Amino acid sequence: MTDAAHDDLIYDWNGKQSDGSWTRGREVMFDDETLRDGLQSPSARDPELDKKIELIHLMDDLGIHTANIGLPGAGERARQHIETLVREMADLTITPNVACRTMIGDIEPVVDLVQKTGQPIEVCAFIGSSPIRRFAEGWDMENMIKLSRDAVEFCAKNDLPCMFVTEDTTRAHPDDVRALYTTAIEAGAQRICICDTCGHATPEGVASLVGFVKDLVEELGADVGIDWHGHRDRNLGLINTLTAYRAGATRLHATALGVGERAGNTEMDLLLVNFKLSGAVTRDMTRLAEYCQKAADAIGLTIPHNYPVFGSDAFETGTGVHASAVIKAFNMDDEWLANRVYSGVPADIFGREQTIKVGPMSGRSNVTWVLKKHGVEATDERVQKVLDLAKSTPHLLTDEEVLTAAK
């Protein structure tokens, strides 16, 4: 069957909002924080340079626009890795940025890196913005304004693209947000970044805050991009990032598998899945599973079995009624149908595949499918032997166990 022949098989409520699709047809950019914020995870290890290069190439292949490749102020090893990655990215579409405090001493090494490599590097100059952070640090707003202005003006003077980042924006007072962003924009920042540093925000809060910042930018008549950087302490990272885009953010930050400080960041892979399914991203995403696995291996993580789309359980079923529908679709030689009849995410689009297993809730079709896959005739006797084992076993059988029982 052609794709057009399937048009009436799924009624999509997702596109029925009064103002059209949640993507609204706007362009979206992605900033990958895996090799910076992601490495702040207590469970993460700093990958060797060759692994970082491999990940940068995968990011580029997936159409990710920018990647934060470290903190120049973190030491000589960090600067050596940054320099090598900047040189590697010279022949790619993806471009580099680095994180620096709003201190000229932090930004000066970037000037040296640009001179050595001959490549532009975006500076992400950050400063805390919430009253609680200011109280704990003993900061005063007048000095924060001065640090922000000096840092951004230093970037402009040295032809460094600058994104001004307010940490903990989602707990900051509107007057302080206005003062800091106005200062940065007037000093020459090309982008400003709203941060949910502590994972505090709800979708309603995100919409209000991004709307406030968008109105401020328009009020100033400024041509600057608005970034969103979210964490998932309340497990709202992904929905908050989607909400930020809908409210006006133009570049979204995320990390592979959501790795990051504490509970982590918005998941880049799941963000791309949602934009791909919405139609806002058209680029091929079949290497997204590879990106997840390479990132997990490089950082020293294990992908949870039930992780959406890229966990081992995501497209695997042993439940008879569910498996039966998938098997019937496969028997029609209809891969489109098989990937959607019992899945809201088509496995093949993201480099995965539907898997049928045999377990205590399986039926004859499960067993028949597994046996035929291995070239074994599914006689009634063999199917029954496998089912007898499956019904007495409290977990899914491996294919080897199925074949052994059949024999």
Structural features, described:
This protein has 407 residues and is of the alpha/beta class. The chain folds into two domains: 17-299, Aldolase class I (TIM Barrel, Alpha-Beta Barrel), CATH 3.20.20; 316-406, no CATH class. The protein is 43% helix and 12% strand. The protein contains 15 helices and ten strands. The chain has helices spanning 49-61, 76-89, 104-117, 131-137, 141-157, 174-187, 203-220, 237-247, 268-278, 288-299, 320-331, 335-338, 364-373, 380-391, 399-406; strands at 29-32, 66-68, 95-101, 122-128, 162-167, 191-196, 225-230, 251-254, 316-317, 355-356. The protein is elongated. The chain starts with 28 loop residues before the first strand and ends with a helix.
Strand order, sheet with most strands: 1-2-3-4-5-6-7-8
Portion in beta strands: 5-15%
Total of domains: 2
Residue ranges: pLDDT <50 for 5 or more in a row?
none
What are the secondary-structure elements, in order, as H or E? EHEHEHEHHEHEHEHEHHEHHEHHH
CATH class of the largest domain: Alpha Beta
CATH homologous superfamily (4th level) name of the largest domain: Aldolase class I
How is the secondary structure organized here?
Blueprint: E1 29-32, H1 49-61, E2 66-68, H2 76-89, E3 95-101, H3 104-117, E4 122-128, H4 131-137, H5 141-157, E5 162-167, H6 174-187, E6 191-196, H7 203-220, E7 225-230, H8 237-247, E8 251-254, H9 268-278, H10 288-299, E9 316-317, H11 320-331, H12 335-338, E10 355-356, H13 364-373, H14 380-391, H15 399-406
Parallel strand pairs: 1-2, 1-8, 2-3, 3-4, 4-5, 5-6, 6-7, 7-8, 9-10
